[in-house]
Amino acid sequence: MSKMDFAYMDAGRHITAEEYEQAYAENRKFLEEAYTDSERYKDSLGWLEPEEWVGEEALDRIVKKAEQVRRDADVFVLVGVGGSNQAARAVIKALQMEDGPEILYAGNNISAHYVNKMLSSLEGKSVYINVIAKNFETLEPGIGFRVLRSWQEGRYGKEANSRIAVTGTTGSRLHEIARENGYDFFVFPDNIGGRYSVLSDVGLYPMAVAGIDVRALVQGARDMKAELSDRESEDNIALKYATYRKLLLEKGYAIEMMAFFEPQLHYFSKWWIQLFAESEGKQGKGIYPVSVSYSEDLHSVGQYVQEGQPIIFETFLDVEKQNASIVLEADHVDDGFGYLDGKDFWEINRAAFEATIGAHSDSGIPCLKLTVPEISEYYFGQMFYMFEFACYLSGSILGINPFDQPGVENYKGYMFSRLGK
Ligand SMILES: O=P(O)(O)OC[C@H]1O[C@H](O)[C@H](O)[C@@H](O)[C@@H]1O
C-alpha cells in the first residue's frame, strides 16, 4: 500500500460521508472497465502497463546513451512542447542535479528573443540536443529543431550528427530524418499520447541525461500500478480522487487549484494542468485546472480564493519529509520577528501550510490533501501514474474521451492557414 493518500479536509461541509461512499461504489465499475476494456481506447492505452515501453532493455539503452552524453556535454537542449517536454522538465527542475550538463529548453515557444538568448548561451560549450515530437507537425518543436540543427552543423560540421537524438514515432518523417543523418533514434510510442508519455523514451531519456534515477521513477510507477489495479481494494486512491472531484464539480466547483508550498513543484503542476485540461476540457464539460505556488501566491490570488466566487476547490500537495534546512538565527536588530528565533524555514513553511489549509477549509473552500512522503524520483513515478490513471477514470465518469484534444487541433488549423501551410 502506497504511503500516498488523498484526504478530504472539510469534515462533510460539502460532501457527506454517505454521499461519497455511494458515489465511490457507483464509480467502481469504471475501475473494472479501465483494466479490462482494452478495446475502447486501444490506440491510447500504451501507458497503462509501464512494462510495455520501459522494460529493462529500454531502460538499459536510455541509461547507457545518457551516460555517454553526460560525460561530454556542457549543455543539453530538450526540444519539445506540451506532452513532449512537460514531464521531463517537471522532474529535472524539481530535483536539479548538481553535476552533469545544464538542461535548456527549446521548441516550447516561438519567441525570437528567447531563441536568440538561448543560442547565445550555447557559445563555447559542448552542446547536445534531443528533439521530441509525436506528429512532427507542431510548429514550435519543428522550427526550434531546424534552428538548433543548423546551429549544430555550423559549429560541428559532420560531427553534429552524433550530438543529435530524435524521439519520434517509428516510420515518421522524423524517424526518416534520423536515419538519413545518422542521429540516435528513440521511440515515441504510437499508442501513447504526449501527456501520458512520461514512462517511455519521451520522458526518461532527457531525465537520464540530467542525472535523474529513472529506474527509481519507473519503480514508483510500477508499484502504483500494482496498487491501483487491485480491484479488490476498498480504497483506490485514484478512484477516490476522481470521485471527490466529480462530486465537487456537481456542486459548482468548476476550478481545481493545485497548491504547493515547495516552489520546486511548479513544473510538476504545469504537467498536471496539461494532463487534466486537455483530457477533460471538452463537450462543455470538465474541471479547469490551475496551480498556485504558496506562500507567495497567498499574497495575490489568496484573496480571491478566500472571498471570490465559490467555484474553486484546492488540492494541496503535502510533502512529509524535510528536504532542506535553514535556521533563522536570533539577530542583534529588533526587527519584530524575534518570535521566530531558532526556527527552521522548513518548520515555518509547515506552519504556513497547516494554517492555510485550516483557514481555507474553515471559510468553506473544499480542500483535498495529497500526502507524498518526499520529493524523489520514486514518488514522482507514483504521482505520474496515479494522476494519469485518475484522469482516465475521470474521463469515464464524465463521459468524455480523455485521450484526444480536438480543440487544440482546431486552433492549429487557423494558425497554419494564416502562415500559408
Ligand atoms: O509531440 P508533438 O506532436 O509535437 O505534440 C506536442 C503537443 O502539441 C499539441 O498541440 C497537443 O495538443 C499536445 O497534446 C502535444 O503534447
TrEMBL record:
One of its GO terms (biological process) is gluconeogenesis. Pfam families: PGI. Pathway: Carbohydrate degradation; glycolysis; D-glyceraldehyde 3-phosphate and glycerone phosphate from D-glucose: step 2/4. Belongs to the GPI family. One of its GO terms (cellular component) is cytosol. Keywords: Gluconeogenesis, Glycolysis, Isomerase. It catalyses: alpha-D-glucose 6-phosphate = beta-D-fructose 6-phosphate. One of its GO terms (molecular function) is carbohydrate derivative binding. Its EC number is 5.3.1.9. This is Glucose-6-phosphate isomerase.
